[in-house]
Specification:
Length: 443
Amino acid sequence: MKSKVDFINENTTRALMKLFIPLMLAMTLTMAYSMVDSLWVGNLLGEAGMSALTASTAIVLIMNSLSMGVGNGVSVMIAQRVGAKNTVGVKRAAAVVMIVSLVFSGAICLVGELASEYLLTAMGTPAEVLTEAVSYLRLYLIGNVALFLYMQFTSIFRAFGDSVFQMKGMLMTVIVNAILDPIMINWWGFNGVAIATVISEFVCLAYAFAYHYKKKWFSFDFKAMTWEDVKTMGRLCVPTSIQSIMPALSSAVMITFVNPFGLTALAGYGVVRNLELIMFMPTNAMSMAVTSIVGQCKGAGRIDRAGDYCKKAMLTGGVLIGLVSALVICTSPILSGCFGQGAEVGVIVAEFFHIVSIGYVLYMLTSCIQGYITGIGRPEKAMLLLIAYYIIFRVLPALMLKHIFGLSGIWFAFLVSHILACVLAFVLLQISDKIFLKPVKNT
């Protein structure tokens, strides 16, 4: 069983880059995919359309994050078996992943359809855009089943060291969505955005099946599935799912804090969240790369190399995100205009990025440590780190600071969470992982 990149024997920096660069390109396309809807809605439907999209996509982000979170657990599950050269175990695990994912995503779709209006109302969605937001969410949930299954394919391929699939799949999705958005908006108005998204997601899933049929990196052994494999998937995927939804869940809560400040503030936060995708792009890619690589190293009994990979990731990622952050901070007022928003929204966006600034570098360091802890098979510790990050360190300060500084106080809460979470991440390593603290070998 040979992976495309030899994480165990190849130079760590070179092997890391071979996985990280294609993943970052895939994340760039993911960013583009997420921003396409906002660009078309902002320019064709104005501030009201952007506000409706912002309100509904808070829950969409939770759904997307859940699929990625399950995928991170799946990646660890498969990668450890790939590293241990357990071909039979990979076949069983792949079958379990597909069956469980289909049942789980179907259940999520059904619950979401029934609870959409209640959830958006509870979040304080303005009455002027509630109907549009509910309609968008209900349509989107249909495509979420396809997206969920697609993300599990990407995670399995990534566990083998194949990151090209995710890049190609996202490129196809971006192109389809970008072409369909203006057409569907012209035909069905705001609902057309969701219809275009659903179509693009099913196209992406079809591509996943075609890619699997061509490459045959693994096969599914449905007859050999065991409850032990299901339990293993649950043990890994439940903590990674909670990890992954924390940012999106926190974002949904933060929207309830922003809503009382009016449609302009909500539209500004919608632009902020889209521009933040630029910062999250390299960070998420590096975290996923570290998780998959460390999983293989752990399966092969080379935990020393796992620590080396994480250190290289923090150094490379920290420098990269620093440069990207500086670029976005300097150009944020101009970039906000690309979404068809006025000067007032631009002021809100610029203030956010000037306050948060250095927080994105700290976010990169924290995410690398999170990926390392998850990859070695301790997702529950990474889960606790993320709960502290996005609930204790962000929501609670926002709850207090908004009464003192208004909307700016909410922005300050983001910076506070980045600082405190980074400190906690390094403390967790100091306490629990002596292997990681050993000097890096020249590998």
